[in-house]
Specification:
heterodimer; A: 93 residues; mainly alpha; 3 helices; B: 414 residues; alpha/beta; 10-stranded mixed beta sheet; two-stranded antiparallel ribbon
Chain lengths: 93, 414
C-alpha cells in the first residue's frame, strides 16, 4: 500500500472526507484541513507505521502530495517503520 | 439621553425538550420533563446519575474536519444562533456587519475538551494532547465561531458569570443597542456540562438533586419541601436583538421587547445568595424598564431547587412585589429542562418571550408538597392558558454573586 493510499484511507475514515476529493493535487485548505489538523494527522501516521516522530512537523505543507512527501521522508529516516498496510488504521480519534 | 428600544426578532433553541423555541415551549406547557438517567458510561459511580441532555448530534450539522475544532458547547451555540438568525429572517449581507455583534454567556466553556486533554495526559499517560485543545476548549470559542460564521465584525464578547452568564450577555447586548453602539446583536448562551468530571465536581459540592427512586424525571423539585438540588442540563439558546426601528424598517416580525435589565452583585460569600442582592436586581430591572411592580404579570424564577436558592428568591420576590407577590404566577421551568448553567438565563428569557406571545404560563412541576417558606403561586403541576401577559421577568442568579434580571414586554403594548 502506497503512502498516498494510506493517507487517503486515514482521511476518508477519520476525517469523513469523500475519497474522490483526496487527490495528490488537492490543497489541504480545500479539504478543510489547517496546519493543526496536519499535526493531529501525524499522531495517526505514528500509529500506522509504529514510529515516533521527533522534531517539528512543518506547518507549510499545502497539498496532499506535500504531506505524502513529508511522510516518505519520515519513513526513510525510520527504518523500524512497520510496512505500510501492516497495521489497522487506528480508529481512535 | 433617550435610549433606543430593543426588539427581540429571532429565537433559537437547542435544549432538553426541544430543538426550537416552539418545540421546547410545547413540551414545557405539557409538563414534560427532560430529566433522565444518564448513560452508564457517563454517570458510573455517581450517586445521582441523572441529567437533562439535548437531542443533538453535531455531525449532522458540521463537516468532519470542522467538527474536530468544535467542542460540543460551540456546536450547540452555533446551531442555536443559526436558528435565531433564520427565525429573524435576517440577511446579514444586507446589514452593516460592523454594527452587528455577538455576546455569549457560558460558565464552563469547552469542558469536554478539557476533560479529554487531561484524560490523554494523566489516564492514558500519553503526550498526544490534541493540537486543537486550546482553541476548542477556550471559553470564547462559541462567540468567535458565531461571528466567523456570519461575518459579524462588531463587538464579540463572552461573559462568564456562572449561572447568570447568558442573562448578562443578553442584558449587555441590549445596552449596546440602546446606547447606539450597534444595531443587531446575537446574544445568548451555551453550556455542555454533561461530562464525567464536571458531573463529579458538582456532586462533590452537594448541590445536585437526589434521584427520585420511582421516577428519575421528577427529581428536580423547585420550591418543594422535598427539594434536594439541581439537575444539570445542556444546551444553547440565542436571540436576535435589534434596534426597534431597524426591525420595523426591514419589516421584521417582533416577538417582544427586551425592556429591562438589572444587575447587582452579592459580595458576601462565593455561593450563598442574598435577599438584598436579588431584590435589588429585580428593582433595577423594573427601573430600567420604567415599570412598577404592578406591571409584571409573570416571573420565570431562577428556581434551582437547591435548599438555599428557592427560599431566598421567594423572600426577595416578596420584598420587591409586596402583597402583589402572591398574585403573580411564578414558575421554575428548571423542574423540566434542568439547569443549563451558563445557558440557563437565555433559555428562560426565551421561555418568557414565548409566554407573552402565547398567553400561556408553563408550570413548576413536581411540586406536590410545597415548602412552607415558599408560599407564592408557583403554578404547580399545570400550565395556565388564556392569560393576558404584558410584561414578564426572568431571574438569573449565580455562584460568584452576579444577579441578572431581564424584563420582556409584549410587542403589541406599544
Amino acid at each position: 500500500m502506497s503512502t498516498l493510499d494510506t493517507l487517503v484511507d486515514i482521511l476518508v475514515r477519520d476525517y469523513a472526507l469523500a475519497r474522490e476529493r483526496v487527490t495528490p493535487e488537492a490543497t489541504l485548505a480545500t479539504l478543510g484541513l489547517d496546519s493543526l489538523s496536519v499535526l493531529e494527522l501525524m499522531f495517526k501516521i505514528e500509529d500506522r507505521y509504529a514510529i515516533k516522530i521527533t522534531g517539528d512537523t512543518p506547518t507549510d505543507l499545502l497539498t496532499i502530495s506535500d504531506v505524502v512527501r513529508y511522510i516518505d521522508g519520515l519513513l526513510a529516516r525510520h527504518p523500524e517503520a512497520r510496512a505500510a498496510g501492516a497495521s489497522e488504521v487506528s480508529a481512535k480519534t | 439621553m433617550t435610549l433606543r428600544r430593543v426588539a427581540v426578532t429571532g429565537l433559537g433553541v437547542v435544549a432538553p425538550l426541544g430543538n426550537s423555541a416552539d418545540e421546547l415551549f410545547t413540551n414545557l406547557v405539557a409538563g414534560r420533563s427532560g430529566v433522565h438517567r444518564l448513560d452508564e458510561s457517563l454517570a458510573h459511580g455517581l450517586r445521582s446519575p441523572i441529567g437533562a441532555s439535548a437531542k443533538f448530534d453535531g455531525s449532522a450539522h458540521f463537516p468532519a474536519p470542522r467538527l474536530r475544532m468544535l467542542d460540543r458547547v460551540s456546536q450547540l451555540a452555533m446551531v442555536a444562533a443559526g436558528q435565531a438568525i433564520a427565525d429573524a429572517l435576517l440577511d446579514f449581507a444586507a446589514e452593516n456587519r460592523e454594527r452587528c455583534g455577538v455576546f455569549v454567556g457560558t460558565g464552563m466553556g469547552g469542558a469536554e475538551t478539557t476533560e479529554e486533554g487531561y484524560h490523554t495526559l494523566y489516564a492514558e499517560r500519553s503526550e498526544r494532547i490534541k493540537p486543537y485543545s486550546v482553541i476548542t476548549a477556550m471559553t470564547n470559542a462559541p462567540a468567535s465561531w458565531i461571528g466567523i460564521d456570519h461575518g459579524l465584525s462588531g463587538p464579540i464578547l463572552t461573559y462568564s458569570t456562572a449561572c447568570s452568564s447568558s442573562a448578562v450577555a443578553l442584558g449587555e447586548a441590549a445596552r449596546r443597542i440602546q446606547c447606539g453602539d450597534v444595531d443587531v446583536m446575537l446574544a445568548g448562551g451555551a453550556e455542555a456540562p454533561l461530562v464525567f468530571g464536571v458531573l463529579r465536581a458538582w456532586e462533590a459540592m452537594r448541590t445536585l438533586a437526589v434521584e427520585d427512586p420511582l421516577d428519575p424525571s421528577a427529581s428536580c423539585r423547585p420550591f418543594a419541601r422535598t427539594r434536594t438540588g439541581l439537575v444539570l442540563g445542556e444546551g444553547a439558546a440565542f436571540a436576535v436583538l435589534e434596534e426597534w426601528d431597524h426591525a420595523l424598517t426591514r419589516g421584521a416580525s417582533i416577538h417582544a421587547e427586551l425592556s429591562g435589565y438589572g444587575l447587582t452583585s452579592d459580595v458576601t460569600h462565593i455561593t450563598r445568595p442574598t435577599v438584598e442582592g436579588q431584590a435589588k436586581a429585580m428593582q433595577a430591572a423594573l427601573a430600567s424598564a420604567r415599570l412598577d411592580p404592578g406591571d409584571i404579570d409573570y416571573i420565570n424564577a431562577h428556581g434551582t431547587a437547591t435548599l438555599q436558592n428557592d427560599g431566598v428568591e421567594t423572600t426577595a420576590m416578596k420584598a420587591v412585589f409586596g402583597e402583589r407577590a402572591y398574585l403573580i404566577p411564578v414558575s421554575s421551568t428548571k423542574s423540566m429542562h434542568g439547569h443549563l448553567l451558563g445557558a440557563a438565563g437565555a433559555l428562560e428569557f426565551i421561555i418568557a418571550v414565548m409566554c407573552l406571545k402565547r398567553g400561556i404560563v408553563p408550570p413548576t412541576m413536581h411540586l406536590d408538597s410545597p415548602d412552607p417558606a415558599c408560599d407564592l403561586d408557583y403554578v404547580a403541576g399545570e400550565a395556565r392558558f388564556g392569560m393576558t401577559l404584558r410584561n414578564a421577568m426572568s431571574n438569573s442568579f449565580a455562584f460568584g454573586g452576579t444577579n441578572a434580571v431581564l424584563i420582556v414586554k409584549t410587542a403589541d403594548a406599544g
